[in-house]
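Lab notebook, bench 4. The sequencing result for the construct came back, and we need a structural model before the next group meeting so we can plan mutations. Quick request posted to the team channel:

Model the 3D structure of this chain.
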Amino acid sequence: MSDLVRAVEATLFAATEPMGAEAIAAHLAQSDASLAEVRGALAELAAFYAPRGVHLVERGGKWHFQTAPDLAHLLRREHEESRKLSRAATECLAIIAYHEPVSRAEIESIRGVQTAKGTVDLLMEAGWVRIAGRREVPGRPVIYATTPAFLAHFGLASRRDLPGIEELRATGLLDPVEEAFEALMGGDGAQPDGESLRHSADGVAQGE
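Done. Here's the predicted structure in token form:
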């Protein structure tokens, strides 16, 4: 194992939060390590830890160590109770993940029912959803997107690990949001297609 690989390992081990390759390279600037070399070191470390009890994983463009999934049950405290999301919160989270950035009106259009304000607030308190700005339409409604914490919690490297847009379109799940966009844009047909929605959302979710 090279000195650079060891330095990257030590940096991540001591980090208080996940780090991107660029941040690691900046931290190790005194070693004259290039970004490409740091990325190579990360790949080597990920392979090294793959069969071990601790894995090095990338979530939303940032790297951190986590317990191997098959050993997670050994670290759970028996008295700890899992907090389950309500059906409404689960539906909202899924809609935001697949259609982000999305407004409350668009969420309600897809669900077909009004969404209580506390539902989205709960997802924000959990750290899985954040405000991503405002839609540039009359009224400028707030739009929501998922966070890197959402990716980490569900073991996703990026939103590309979710079932594809074409799979969703085949089920008809994309129809309501596309109709909502058309209505918001004045019915002129200038709404983005599903693939564009997904690509723009990936940038928001990763925040890179």
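The chain has two domains: 3-75, 87-206.
Will bring this to the meeting.
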